[in-house]
Amino acid sequence: xxPDFLFDWPPWGMFLFVLAxxxxxxxxxHQVLKTAIAKRSLTRISDLSPMLQTLxxxxxxxxxxxxxxxxxxxxxxxxxxxxxxxxxxxVIRTYxxxxxxxxxxxxxxxxxxxxAASAAEWETMAEQGGSPQAEAALSAIYRAVLxxxxxxxxxxxxxxxxxxxxxxxxxxxAQRITMAQEIVSxxxxxxxxxxxxxxxxxxxxxHARWPASRAVALGIITLAISISLFVIVVHxxxxxxxxxxxxxxxxxxxxxxx
Length: 258
Hints:
By secondary structure, the chain is mainly alpha-helical. The chain is built from 10 helices and no strands.
């Protein structure tokens, strides 16, 4: 899995880290293939270069494409879910405008408590899920809606509409927490990295006879692999790091941010 510290770096730092790790592997392969034993063993295998390079390259590209598509889709959905959560909170506050005096102030405080608790749980959702504080704040809003309206058709209608939006708010939060845990798994990383290593090795083997050509080929493929892995890394955790989907819409919907 991707180390946590990497997401605290700016994108260019993340890319240089990925490039450096991939480059080290390429240099090791290049140096190993320069040995006399490797040259004697790999000379004939290098004649299979078109087939080997095409097969390994295709497998690597397919694995990266599927994984990158999954990561991008998750990140896009994460932004949509956060805005849906904020929209439900904003509608609830609109209904609150029908209240006056202490009732309005009490409901406003509950929605702000929920928004603050949700923002506090943001960066720990992937490991710990939702926080008890946010769950308690959401439950407090439910109790207030269920118990805070007196008899009357208008009040019952307002109560029903607020409950519908509360259900939407609760559903959006649940989806957000689930989405935060949909990160690239160790098995997925193993598959992509193993195929990248195989691809680099085949490129080196297929250019075993010509050291200069091998160095150029490995350099080009190293850059291509680094770009592919960087795209996955930078979008891996939608709610964590410098590139995260922030809780700002939720805070603004509760009136806690400008």
